[in-house]
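To: structure subgroup
Subject: Chain for Friday's discussion

All,

I'm putting the inputs and outputs inline so they're searchable in the archive.
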Amino acid sequence: MSVAELIDLKELLDPNRPFGLEEIRTLSEAMASQQSSEARQYLTELGGRLDDGESLSDAELFRLGILNFLFGRHGRATDILSGLSHDALAPFYAAQSMLSQERYTEAAQKFEEAGNAGYDKVGCSLMQAGAIRAGGDVETAEQILKQVAGEAASRAEYSFQMGCIMADRGDTFGAVEYFERAVDMDPHHARALFWLAAENALHGNDEDAIRLYEQALSKPPYYMGALLNLGLLYEDCENYLSAAYCFRRVLEYDPNNARAELYLKDIDATKDMYYDEDSVKQEQKLQQLLGKPVTDFELSVRSRNCLTSMDIHTLGDLTEVSEQELLGGKNFGETSLHEIRDLLSAHSLRIGQNLHRAKQQEMIIEQENLSPQEQAMMNRPVTDLNLSVRSRKCMSRLGLNTIGALLQRTPDELLASRNFGVTSLNEIRAKLTEVDLKLRND
């Protein structure tokens, strides 16, 4: 049955009919082809009966558990499917839901149980290896993969799990190669697509990242992380309607998802924001002006020599010193000061107007007096903080590549950046607190 064909969900979910792996795949296709509302209605009705204390048959519970899994309601799916033992598929999908809940030890045990019960022994071993690896035991996971390599090497899941091993060991290129191989074998392998999308987003390849996230979300099961990341990428591209849609979908599946709720509030706040293109052009002109050498302007020989001796070479340098500092220079008197004032005034500038930049530079110099351990922390890339896509994009836009550079900014300076809201600020504060650091003036 093709995706384009209208599937009779009532018949498909009839508890008196067979409901195995093929039917689950058909249900997933139906939900991806505009029939998700019908499936959700069935889930609501059946779940309501269970909540009201009605006793459901194992066949009905199995269908209810699978629907919860496909809709990303993994806690509910685990509770329902873990109690079923009539079908080897029940522990397999229960294990997948446990994996999504980061219950790695339980998931590994459930995958083994599903294999022993007769469901695809090799496939269960691959998933078990993934759960063990996610729990931190990379060596054991790799041993399991080696044991089934002869039978599993042609499977997309094997390539995906090998890619995860590579990623955990820091071999990004090797990991990407395996993930791409997995997608070549199975264009709908959601987890491999998620990894590739995240890697592209990390390197600023937004268009490819969006395409891969959309491909990962083209059919159930839906991963909340993919929906959140896609929403943030849409928002960064100022596609606010699509971003809001993603966050609402997350809240639809998980009403208590705090991140989606905050991101949606940021979207609503963005509606009141105004991006002034003329102001951006003016800022670009100002930066060009500040970069002009003082030798391009008519100044007395004394003033030029004094500025050179004080290592002042551009108009921008003059805006980063105070009048007292200028007067403290050898042979620099009131006459030269008035001359400099007039020069800057003619270009709508003034002495010392950018003193805050000089202070930031002083902070950089102060870092040279830090211990080797403290300097190493300051030089660590911002990406080590494991920030969300939105926050990483803002860091990139502001040119903040290291933790030290981030610490030089105040909360107000960060909030002034386009698309940087309170949610991102709170996230950065929390991440810095984890390593006993704070933003300037915090």
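Points worth raising on Friday:
Residues 272-276, 358-368 have pLDDT under 50 and may be disordered.
The two ends are 60 Å apart (CA to CA).

D.
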